[in-house]
């Protein structure tokens, strides 16, 4: 059984007391910047919601708000996390519902504020409130290991480490793992893998990365320009049936909810495989 | 002859044998080794204390003026210990010495009355920070 498994809280309607099981708060972190935390949070969240789970995505990158853009929700954001923490508005006013899924919500970060403005105890309190209402709380952590990182992990119980097959990313991931609370068992996502380069011996393999980090492998995501296209449009690629990346994110969501998907493959299909498959079955390429 | 060839290939550094992925692998190994040492001052302190204790069995040393440092090099992380020796002890224990632990190769050099110890670790662990 995976650490992430949670019992369904279908019975938790708005009016009911908080006696029901709390949801899981999972922080997506990496140490190094730009390795795919926000992309992962948006897509894993989207895929979890598509599985029928009630999910809220929390942008903890105060001052550098991004998650709303990746989800295409930037026009709907009125209030943010600090507004809630500081009591300016209620939680319901600040939660933004996704365009596509009724199960998916966003709590945006404040763009004009600083990470030091967040009070750790208040943050923990807010995460607990969210866990009363959602089965999964995914927290998009800022890069670094300072205040922003500490606040992002404060209200969580689990961590997903995102790492790319690069020396600096693995080094930072190793450092971050050492800073997580004792007793956590973080899981690893290797992002931006290019299997053709690995085959030629020109890129660290998933095995190389995990020979260092030694974490349970949650997923491997290929490097594909499709991510950039989907970010441009504000449509998470997790919903694209014809994309290898979409499939990788859906597999991760499946594992998080406890589906038995066997061992994670340490390589990914060559780019184009899914596009060709899609074309073959009349899908859009 | 064949054996010798195999051996010489075995000792070739990784990054001459393969592509840049292997270079990355080797750099990663070294950088983490060095990170883990600098993140574990308690381990380094304990190591120093034991090192001095062992040396003191054979020679009188001046721990006040001893220096133990770790240095990142192209192909290894080395521990450099410079320990002033004041005198050889008369009550020093005699051989045999205990065997070196399997994961570590230890080479010793003598120079100008100081003991030079170089440790070349061959394996490393996960970020073992408390
Ligand atoms: N698998 C992938 N293939 C191609 N591009 C990717 C992939 N994953 C992420 N990217 C791109 O890399 C860039 C950084 O991704 P993202 O913003 O998710 O990283 P981050 O870890 O959240 O960054 P930051 O530390 O700045 O918050 C984006 O332009 C994104 O589109
Ligand atoms: Mg981000």
Descriptive overview:
The complex is a heterodimer of chains A (285) and B (130). Helices cover 37% and strands 14% of the residues of chain A. Chain A is of the alpha/beta class and 285 residues long. Chain A is globular. Mean pLDDT of chain B is 73; it is low at 1-12, 108-112 and 120-130. Chain B contains four helices and five strands. The radius of gyration of chain B is 18 Å and the shape is elongated. With 130 residues, chain B is α+β, with helices and mostly antiparallel strands. The interface between A and B is medium-sized, with 21 and 18 residues.
What is the total number of structural domains of chain A? Answer: 1
Helix amount of chain B, in percent?
A: 25-40%
How many DSSP-defined strands of chain B?
Answer: 5
Coarse morphology of chain A: globular
Helix/sheet category of chain A: alpha/beta
> What is the mean pLDDT of chain A?
89
Q: How do the helices and strands follow one another from N- to C-terminus of chain B?
A: HHHHEEEEE
Distance from first to last alpha carbon of chain A: 37 Å
Kindly state the mean pLDDT of chain B as a whole number?
Answer: 73
Order of helices and strands of chain A: EHEHHHEEHEHEHEHHEHHH
How would you characterize the largest beta sheet of chain B?
Answer: 5 strands, antiparallel
Distance between the termini of chain B: 50 Å
Strand content of chain A: 5-15%
CATH superfamily of chain A: P-loop containing nucleotide triphosphate hydrolases
Output the radius of gyration of chain A: 18 Å
């Amino acid at each position: 059984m995976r650490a992430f498994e949670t019992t369904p809280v279908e019975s938790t309607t708005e009016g009911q007391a908080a006696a029901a099981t709390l949801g899981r708060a999972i922080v997506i972190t990496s140490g190094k910047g730009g390795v795919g935390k926000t992309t992962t949070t948006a897509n894993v969240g989207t895929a979890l919601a598509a599985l029928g789970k009630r999910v809220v995505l929390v942008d903890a990158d105060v001052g550098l708000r991004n998650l709303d853009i990746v989800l295409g929700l930037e026009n709907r954001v009125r209030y943010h996390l600090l507004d809630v923490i500081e009591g300016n508005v209620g939680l319901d006013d600040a939660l933004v519902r996704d365009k596509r899924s009724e199960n998916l919500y966003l709590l945006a970060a404040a763009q004009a504020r600083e990470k030091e403005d967040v009070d750790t105890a208040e943050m923990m309190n807010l995460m607990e409130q969210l866990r009363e209402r959602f089965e999964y709380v995914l927290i998009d952590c800022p890069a670094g290991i300072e205040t922003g990182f500490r606040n992002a992990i404060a209200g969580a119980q689990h961590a997903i480490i995102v790492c790319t097959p690069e020396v600096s990313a693995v080094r930072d991931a190793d450092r971050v793992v050492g800073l997580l609370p004792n007793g956590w068992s973080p899981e690893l996502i290797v992002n931006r893998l290019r299997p053709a380069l690995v085959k030629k011996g020109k890129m660290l393999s998933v095995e190389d990365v995990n020979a260092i980090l030694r974490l349970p492998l949650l997923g491997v995501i290929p490097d594909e320009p499709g991510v950039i296209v989907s970010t441009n449009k504000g449509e998470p690629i997790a919903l694209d049936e014809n994309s290898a990346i979409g499939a990788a994110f859906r597999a991760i969501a499946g594992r998080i909810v406890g589906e038995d998907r066997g061992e994670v493959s340490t390589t990914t299909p060559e780019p184009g495989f899914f596009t060709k498959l899609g074309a073959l079955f009349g899908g859009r390429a | 002859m064949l054996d010798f060839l195999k051996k010489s290939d075995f000792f070739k550094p990784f990054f001459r044998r393969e592509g840049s992925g292997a270079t990355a692998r080797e750099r990663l190994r070294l950088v983490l080794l060095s990170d883990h040492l600098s993140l574990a001052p308690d381990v380094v302190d304990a190591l120093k204390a034991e090192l001095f204790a062992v040396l003191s069995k054979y020679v009188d040393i001046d721990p006040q003026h001893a220096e133990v440092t770790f240095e990142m090099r192209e192909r290894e992380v080395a521990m450099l210990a410079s320990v002033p020796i004041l005198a050889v002890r008369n009550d020093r224990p005699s051989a045999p010495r205990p065997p070196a632990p399997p994961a570590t190769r230890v080479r010793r050099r003598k120079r100008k009355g100081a003991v030079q110890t170089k440790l070349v670790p061959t394996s490393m662990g996960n970020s073992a920070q408390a």
